[in-house]
Design a protein that fits this description.
The complex is a heterodimer of chains A (162) and B (157). Helices cover 78% and strands 0% of the residues of chain A. Chain A is an all-alpha fold. The chains are: A mainly alpha (162), B mainly alpha (157). Chain A binds chain B through residues 25, 28-29, 32-33, 35-41, 43-44, 52-53, 55-57, 59-61, 63-64, 67, 146, 149-150, 153-154, 156-158, and chain B through 20, 23-24, 27-28, 31-32, 34-36, 38-43, 46-47, 51-56, 59-60, 62-63, 125, 144-145, 148-149, 151-153, 155-156.
Amino acid sequence: MDAFIAWLQATRLSQAIVYYTWIWPACETLHFIGLALVIGIVGFFDLRLIGFFRRVSVSAARELMPFAIGGFALNLSSGLVFLIGHPEQYAHNIAWWYKVGSLALAGLNAAIFETWVDAKTIHLGPGDETPASAKAIGIVSILAWFSVLVWGRMLPFVGNAF
Amino acid sequence: MMAWIESTGLATWVRESPSLWAYPTILTLHTVGLGIVVGASAVVDFRLLGFARRVKPIDLSPLFGLMVWAFLLNATTGVLLFIADATTKSRQPVFYVKLSLIFVALWCTFATRRIIREETPDASPASASSPNGARLAVVSLLLWAGAITAGRLMAYM
């Protein structure tokens, strides 16, 4: 791990990210904008799965999802910039690993939804109650995404890596 | 005045307590609130721009209630973060830029809510929205992105 960190820090890309001081705040800003898109749009769909916004059909509630994927792409890219710029800040920080674990949980949860739950849920129209499996998916999704946010924001204060 | 605010027990606790429940948690809650306010606002704005047309705008009304609670969370945590560092923050022009952007964005949010209630309660799900709604949506998205940018830059300027 430490060898990989040292190798990464020695790359020209890593050094450029650190050298141009405007890159970091610019990426942080994009990271926060992407965060809001993911939380808002995924959260809205999750709330429909849980049973709120029942007058909206499930498939209609999902139509904004491309913007959430766009927000996530923004955060994956800006997050990689942080990681490549200062790998030592993250690899040795337990909060970062909690964040990555929460991301994995959110991804696994979405995959379970797409694979098993989606078929019986996506055709539900206005007023329809969602099955318990969809409610569980919605709750796990909201908790996982807020966990990603919380551990990300807590990063500089947990451990001694920063 | 700012020095006095900064010296109060509460401000000192926020700034100097080694507890994760002080500054780190307050800052994290501020980010949680940001995600809910701006995220919920973005859902409404994208709908008014003509995406997800099968969603009736009026059915998104509960999002405004959510935004109010999240905004109150951010007003509270924002005051706490400000008093902890009042002399510095009160001298940062970008802080006043952020506050101004938020106030105009809030005005947009209330105007959007009024448009949704008055103009589209009977609109068929397939209809787009009024041109006013679409214009407000663009302005709202830009203002919130601007407020986020200004907030982030406060740590650097």
